[in-house]
Amino acid sequence: QVRLVESGGGSVQAGGSLRLSCTVLGYAHYAYDPNCMGWFRQAPGKEREGVAGIDGDGSTSYADSVKGRFTVSQDNAKRTLYLQMNSLIPEDTAMYYCAARRRYACYSGLKVLQLPSDALDAWGEGTLVTVSS
């Protein structure tokens, strides 16, 4: 079994920063590649959307709404994916989820943010980010 555990959410004022973490836990952690992991978010009354991810070739990708403000990175030794969020705005308020695709299904050319939800094999329970104006 594998679990993705997110942390780092909280309440901040507009213009502030937060760093989210997502750690892969469980004896089968080796089944997940450091690539093919991403951050998604869902605001109240809205559909889930991709925010930032590490694609199959190791490159990073971002939603247009967060480019220049958010940075995704990973620490392979810690099996942790990060999302540094700067210049936060109220529209960033949402539940943020980490998701991963199994290693055998992770290949160069795969774009994590373009995958449908059921193509991602593991999801965390989410961490709430609230940005006030």
Report on this model:
This protein is mainly beta and 133 residues long. The protein contains no helices and 11 strands. Strands 2, 4, 5, 6, 9, 10 and 11 form a 7-stranded mixed beta sheet that branches. Strands 1-3-8-7 form a 4-stranded antiparallel beta sheet, with no helix packed on it. A hairpin with a 4-residue loop joins strand 7 and strand 8 (80-85). The protein starts with a strand and ends with a strand. The mean pLDDT is 93.
In brief:
Helix content is 0%, strand content 50%. The chain is mainly beta and 133 residues long. Strands 2, 4, 5, 6, 9, 10 and 11 form a seven-stranded mixed beta sheet that branches.
What structural class should be given to the helix and strand makeup? Answer: mainly beta
Low-confidence stretches: none
Oligomer: single chain
Biggest beta sheet attributes: 7 strands, mixed
Structure keywords:
133 residues; mainly beta; 7-stranded mixed beta sheet; 0% helix; globular
